[in-house]
Structure formats: structure tokens, C-alpha cells
Amino acid sequence: MTVHLNTQADLEEAIHALVKQDPRLKPVFELAGMPALRRREPGYAGLAAIICGQQLSTASAAAIWARVSAAFDPFHHDALRRARAARLGRLGLSAAKIKTLKNLAREIAADRLNLDVLANEDADAAHHALTALHGIGPWTADVYLLFCLGHGDAWPAGDLAVQEAVKIGLGLKTRPSAKQMTPLAEPWRPMRGAAAHLWWSYYRTLKKREGVIGAADKADAVLHKIPATTRSAAARMAARRRRPSKIKSAK
């Protein structure tokens, strides 16, 4: 069964089911409260926005995506596929990201990839399908599945903020690695994506109330790092740059 988090009601239903399913999450939920659902545009534009922000600060990612999305309106994979690398470079994209975006555009144009259908696939299979593509790492794949497609079982095992929250919430001695996070999340299937929303909320609550987070402070909370992919992107990006700086997440 594939759970979809398309609305706030979907997320709330999943969170309540998780707390009932795993009593360890009850104190986490009581402290964090109900998280808010964050969704972004699916398809090529949504994944391109995430790729543009890889390994960058929130402000830098926002500025580059604002330029890229404004330069291609409407934003379509064929436009990026045909664009000269020099032009993309002048917009602030690195050679590696240009290669990734162009390769992704070619895969879509050749009908070898349909990003939207991944929402209905098994989360692990969808994750592997994305990470098999050039330049798409685990963090990028999981963020796309969770925030752009609303895949209810996507699990960002490599996200430092989620790792730190799980460590504290489950009383672990050390922060679990991405490999260790996989078995830890097994009790939350098929709603690991909803669990991730809860753990992010828990992390932010701990940081605000107790200042207990240290090592993960340099990781960006995922849902604050993805620029909006709309025609008003530049305005939204400017507004986000005025917000307090966030934590930088691992790729």
C-alpha cells in the first residue's frame, strides 16, 4: 500500500496512525506537535530546483534558482536540454549540475523516465530509480519523493537533522548513520515520510526550547532548502532570504 501525503489531513491521519503504531513516538509528538505539510512542484522543474540547491547555502541556492527559473519561462526539460552550457553557467550553475540537468532532460525527452509515476511506486524502488541517474544522490532523491511527490514512505536516512532527532527521541547513545537509519525506520512503514515530517518538527522544537542540538546545526532543514518553482520565484526567493538562516542538510 502506497500512502500519499497530498494534504494536511493526509499527514495528520498518518501521524496519528504512527503514534498509535509505535508508542515511542507519543512523547515525540506531544513535544513537537502536528507538523505542517510542505509540498513543492513535481516533475522536472521540482527536481531541477533541488539539484540547483545541492551543497549550497539557502541564500545561494535561492539566488541561482531565481535566475534559472526566470531565464526559462515556462520551465521545460526541452528548453534546458537545448540550452548552451555557457548560458547555464552564466546563471550560476556548476558544470556538474549542468551535466545532471541536461542528462535528466534527455532521459525525460526519450521517455526513459517519468518522474511523476514514482509517487505510486514502492519507496525503495523509486529511490533507486532516481539515484541511478547521474548526479542524483540519496538526499536529492528522498527530498523529491517526499516534498514534490508526497510519497508517504520516502525516508531521508541521510538527513542530519532527522538523524539527530531520532538519536534524542529514541534515546540512542550516538547519532545513527544513514545505514543505521534504515532498520530504525522499519516500524514506521509504509508511513516513513510522515515520520520524517514528525522528526523534523521534533528537531526544530528541541533546538528552540533547549538548545541541545550541536553537530547538526550546520545541516539545512530539508523543507526550507527547496526553492519554489513558480513564475513568481524571484519574489519568493527574496522573501526567503529575509528569513532567519536555517540548518544545512546533508545531500
Explain this structure to me?
The protein is mostly helical and 251 residues long. It has 2 domains: 8-38 and 154-218, Orthogonal Bundle (Endonuclease Iii, domain 2), CATH 1.10.1670; 43-151 and 225-241, Endonuclease III, domain 1, CATH 1.10.340. The chain is 56% helix and 0% strand. It is built from 14 helices and no strands. The chain has helices spanning 8-21, 25-32, 43-52, 58-71, 77-82, 85-90, 95-109, 123-131, 138-148, 160-169, 178-184, 192-209, 222-225, 233-241. Helix 4 runs antiparallel to helix 14. The longest helix has 18 residues, at 192-209. The chain is elongated and about 55 Å long. Mean pLDDT is 86; it is low at 213-251.
Features:
single chain, 251 residues, Endonuclease Iii, domain 2, 14 helices
CATH secondary-structure class of the largest domain: Mainly Alpha
What's the architecture of the largest domain in CATH terms? Orthogonal Bundle
Structural domains: how many: 2
Helix content: 55-70%
SSE sequence, one letter per element:
HHHHHHHHHHHHHH
CATH superfamily of the largest domain: Hypothetical protein, domain 2
SS content category? mainly alpha
What summary fits the major beta sheet? none
Task: Round the mean pLDDT to the nearest integer and report it.
Answer: 86
- List the uncertain runs: 213-251
Q: How many extended strands? A: 0
CATH-assigned fold name of the largest domain:
Endonuclease III, domain 1
Helix count?
A: 14
Compute the CA-based radius of gyration: 18 Å
* Envelope shape: elongated
Oligomer: single chain
Strand content: under 5%
Q: Could you tell me how far the N terminus lies from the C terminus, measured between alpha carbons in angstroms?
A: 28 Å
